[in-house]
Amino acid sequence: MEFPEGSIESFGGYVQISWSTGRVQKLSAPFLRAVCQCAECGNLSIQIEAKMFPGLQVERINLVGSYAFQFYFSDGHHDGAFPYDMLLNLPDDM
Fold it and tell me: Which of 29, 34, 44, 47 is the most buried (most CB within 10 A)?
């Protein structure tokens, strides 16, 4: 899928973001699920960690305006937006 700053593709267990600057990120579905900043995840009394989501997949990606993505995870979670700025601050391979 193309977006203003590059392209993104889901490979199930991870997404690959190719930014127009040439930077490429490969982010696992469990890692993305663990860094979700939605109200539901932010109000949990426990620390969310990627290891809590073995085998998790990204089933679909939607654009949110011109600033973020919405990921649909195989555990049914799809709340929250993942702004481009937030994703750019993540490591390249997680």
Answer: 29
